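Board notes (copied after class):
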Amino acid sequence: MTVRIYDIMACDVYWDFEDSVGLPKEQHKFLVSFFPSETPVPDQIESIVARGPGGYQAAFTNQMFTNANRDGWIYDPSLDYHWYMLNVPAGFLAEGTYTIEVTTKDGEVLTRSREQRSAPSRAIVDGYLAHRDRMAYTLTSWSTLAEFGGPDAYYVYRLAQAASLREFDTQKLLWWDNIYIRRARGVEPLAGLNKGSVDLPIELTPGNTYGLFVEITDGNAQGEANICVFQPHRFLTA
């Protein structure tokens, strides 16, 4: 069995989802993505723990991620790989070094670390809140913060067949704009930067309702992100 970490995230999240009663806007998340493996990665994982300054610790659960549990693995069939995400509704992260430790069932321990900075996170959130109510959307386009004189940012677009947040399933996306892999492959070093539209590689069915989720972040490599703004989902008819 072989488990290899591709990259990690340990960053702030501004949670602006609709229907999030009881959840604070200021949260944080941890994410660890893995290279493809012949044996599915979840079958090889014993534990995943995030550690940070001041004795901070948070454990992932080895289960399928859902909108309800907000903790577990997601499989991306487009690249045949798994990644784990843990959303923690407990404010923004303190600055400092965060490490994600992966222990496999055969006893191997893998770690990856990154440095979290607060200033870039605050700049993106302040820019978003200043212009939130002016931002417009279609099924394939959206406003960027830069259009209103706000900070530069990267945009990650996801599309699913859904008419509500409950129906929007991260495990069953029709397509998503993977700016991270384009940056990693050197195809587009600035992939996603101030990007306000996509050319869909799939056909939409007239009359069907689709959900789109456009995430705002300050980095197009997972380990470089200090903030992810989870904008409200939009549900539009083709």
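Comment from the instructor: Residues 50 and 109 are 13 Å apart (CA to CA). The first strand starts at residue 5 and ends at 15.
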